[in-house]
């Protein structure tokens, strides 16, 4: 099955918004064995959208649109697709009631124009929207032996993704005209792409037309994507097992998870299964570690909270950091990182205290402590230590990298403990 | 002058790379008065690239391509454009010498295939590449009274940008057929797209072919984009002033900034100029407010830090929340929100304490306090209050919305103070 993407919105053309929707849909469809052959962005103009639908269906079976689904006058997608497939719009009463009740629950009045959201082209299915008011739309028809499939999604990325995951992909996965493709992802952190490649070395004897390996770098780490195109599932599993074994042998210490695991979720499971709790003492990361830990549902099982010690006065007053140490070593130092980790552990009664103190930039760097320097402190009932890391990025990326490094310090410490524990 | 973008590369279609080139070129061309009417991404396939060139020139004067300019076998752009314009490729000796010398300086051997980089279609100009080996290309021709302009740029963003800035934009800026376009953006928060539209009501008497208004929603708020296409800058300013005045009259309380302002940066400026400091007591947001505040360079001027009080024991132990109140009202309550805000203010000595306690989901909701409920507490030296907000989103979006609402509580409080202050 070939797909074309049609992303709609003036804001994409004038560069006010980067088209992350196309990238995400491209990746998601590809991993499901659907080939994305072309991706087109046009503005909020009915005749242009229509012309691109025609062009897309000249080549593709499936067209996925994003954008232009809201209640305002420049939202034209629904009208255009209804017209293109000659399917008149009519109010869907159940949908209208659902939208009205969403407004009621938020205790807000519903504007007249919002009712347009409940209009659906005849013969189209709704794709449930678990997080917003406007659902997506699905349509399929076969005329003259040619099948045309259409998915209409909103432009707001979070809504688009949730609708696609909940309602669109399950439909597509039922189809037999996909290329068989088996993916496996290993998640690494704490090592850059080139270094990881050097650690892993040559694996070309395991790769061929049927078996691929891709390095996918991001700020939180490098993902290794293993792919088999074999249409025999046992053969694919065997190929990927063999490749995974070699990768784990050579770079296992950097691999923290598989699939779409996040470091914070993997760490959360480790803490929960060991009955441990953690508290955070954040300076350089400003609360970001707490945010990441609490992004995981159920994190209250193991995360108690902590202190954002951005000002030195808070480090002293709330965490018991010594003023003399701050004076002698500076805030970005091993001693302060350790005192912060120890202090938050004592203040909260957590099993583990973790801390960050560093220079995210752009200001504040010195020759000795350049922008991108961070000390990460760790304390539990048996051990206390701090490690220094250096990154070379801008403020936002540094905060991201600092927080990832801190979460990984806990993960590695727990793994070390596990490894050195006497057999039961 | 109308432009189409043609971004080339399999990695863009399968989502391995997000298409930041299209966004950047869109913004740069738009601000130079060149209308980007369409943006197409295709893979590394000669016939597809050629077909898209044909489609583009059916509508546009200028086509800008990125990607497919390197030395490997899947780099096809140069061959395709040479063929499309019927301009044979020939080696440019000066360029070959330049490429050879770059290899010598890096003490590397030049592979045979690299020589292909020095081939240039007859009649094409080079666009100097200050940072890499492959230059961009420029071509223009007029046939049958129709002008066609072509810029061919590499796909690596840093190289693409440097070539465009150094060699492409100066050429385009000399042309007289650019449309003058003036944008202005108003940033709102605390109100959804439909509600904002209802507040603003009908402004069609201020809009016409020359003046446009767009609503651009995201989780942090709705941006209002005002555009004038008048070629007289005084007239454009007047048009946008008039429209902005009406928008501010009708929805001013929701407008926190202009351009690319963020709420945290605007709030930071307000705090700094008033000599105030703030501390955070976060339960539901888990540190995210601190993270957002510290994303702003220089935030140590006004942000002291605070407490992430995820567990009730931390609310009691670190913020002085009363156990009796927790027992009687529950953690997600007005009284606890107020005690948290008051507690963190006292613990840190900040001018303002702000707190969140709520249910981000997916678990923990009840009929009385459903998922998406948050209490936001505010305390300063004169006043203390808490507001309840209800959202209907998933965990990540709720945390985002809670934190935006909390930052906006401070902003509104400071504006109210300003408004009620006696004239100096």
Short recap of the structure:
Two copies of one chain form a homodimer. Chain A is α/β, with parallel strands linked by helices. The first copy, chain A, has helices spanning 10-13, 20-31, 46-57, 77-84, 93-105, 157-173, 193-200, 233-251, 263-274, 288-294, 312-319, 323-329, 334-348, 395-420; strands at 2-8, 35-42, 62-66, 89-91, 119-121, 125-127, 136-143, 146-153, 182-188, 211-218, 221-228, 255-258, 278-282, 303-309, 352-358, 373-379, 384-390.
Describe the structure.
Two copies of one chain form a homodimer. Chain A has 14 helices and 17 strands. In chain A, the strands form four sheets. In chain A, strands 2-1-3-8-7-6 form a six-stranded mixed beta sheet, with helices on both faces. A five-stranded mixed beta sheet of chain A has the order 14-13-15-16-17, with helices on both faces. A four-stranded antiparallel beta sheet of chain A has the order 10-11-9-12. In chain A, a hairpin with an 8-residue loop joins strand 6 and strand 7. Chain A is 40% helix and 25% strand. The longest helix of chain A has 26 residues. Chains A and B meet through helix 1, helix 2, strand 2, strand 13 and helix 10 of A and helix 2, strand 2, helix 7, strand 10 and strand 13 of B.
